[in-house]
Amino acid sequence: MTDVTIRSGSTVRDAIMVFKPRIAIAIMLSAIGGMAVVDGPSPGLWQLSVLAIAVFLAAGSAGAFNQWVEHDLDARMKRTANRPFVTGQFTAGPAWLAVITGLLAAAVVLAGLATNWWAALYTFLGAFTYGVIYTMWLKRRSWTNIVIGGLAGSFAVLAGAAAIDPSIGIEAMLLTLVLFLWTPPHFWSLAMVSSDDYARAGVPMLPVVAGKQLCAWVILGHTLALSLIALIPAWYGMGNLYLAGALTGGAIFTWTSIALVYRPDRTRALKNFFASLLHLCLLLGGAVADRAIGAFL
């Protein structure tokens, strides 16, 4: 039996969850948003679809690498104690590393062949940022871990934009900045929910090192900056659907962030976490909807 073999009692779902598909989907949607904000002749739909799949696979490989590296850390946290590398369903050995590396290599090559090698480079950099810079270098060392790690989503936007036009324009750069600003308050809200876990495991997430009250204020500052900057693309060609999504999502996220400052507890942190997801969906959904409608006009 190799260390990739699924042991008795495990399920296909366990194998799928190793690759953190929910995060991978969010990263893929960010790439699709990057495609949507760029004007100009697009490659074929099949090429853009292949790029989206490549970004999803690359993000999945980074998620699996994260679990492979952190199985010792996951064992010390209630939220992650049932992950397969912790329970022993899978062994965090060299065979799994080979699978993860092969998947990333395949994703990068797929992105390059389907679109161009700039898109492939950004696809790789997104996975590298999450897997190596965030997971290996920063997470156990600095509260800035997720600030820098947030570039994973930003690189996905650049990958999508580069598939349309490798010379990245102002619209794509603005959306890249929006994703960069969105990631910290999103994950800090989750970190506030699980702050006891992170403290017990010795992970210097912001609410652990600065306290929940200060963390809530920092989240609010990020949310305000994010919500305002997210409006700017509307002045660079994005349509009314994008603007409506940016206004609505920004207002809700700001409101829940203000509520978190007034009472920085687990319940409000969880509400803020979900508000951040809604904001992202409205932003990206508005961008894609505007692009789709424009294609038929």
What does this structure look like?
By secondary structure, the chain is an all-alpha fold. It folds into two domains: 1-166, Tetracycline Repressor, domain 2 (Orthogonal Bundle); 169-297. Helix content is 75%, strand content 0%. The chain contains 15 helices and no strands. It has helices spanning 12-17, 21-36, 45-69, 71-74, 84-87, 94-114, 117-138, 145-149, 151-164, 170-193, 195-201, 206-210, 212-229, 240-262, 266-295. Helix 2 (21-36) crosses helix 9 (151-164), helix 3 (45-69) packs antiparallel against helix 6 (94-114) and helix 14 runs antiparallel to helix 15. The longest helix is centred in the C-terminal third of the chain and has 30 residues, at 266-295. It is flat and about 50 Å long. The chain starts with 11 loop residues before the first helix and ends with a helix. 49% of the residues are buried. The model has no long low-confidence stretch (mean pLDDT 92).
CATH topology-level name of the largest domain: Tetracycline Repressor, domain 2
Contiguous helical run count: 15
According to CATH, the homologous superfamily of the largest domain is: UbiA prenyltransferase
Principal-axis shape equals flat
- Helix and strand content put the structural class at mainly alpha
> Given this structure, which CATH class of the largest domain is correct?
Mainly Alpha
Please give a quick description of this structure.
75% of the residues lie in helices and 0% in strands. It is mainly alpha-helical and 297 residues long.
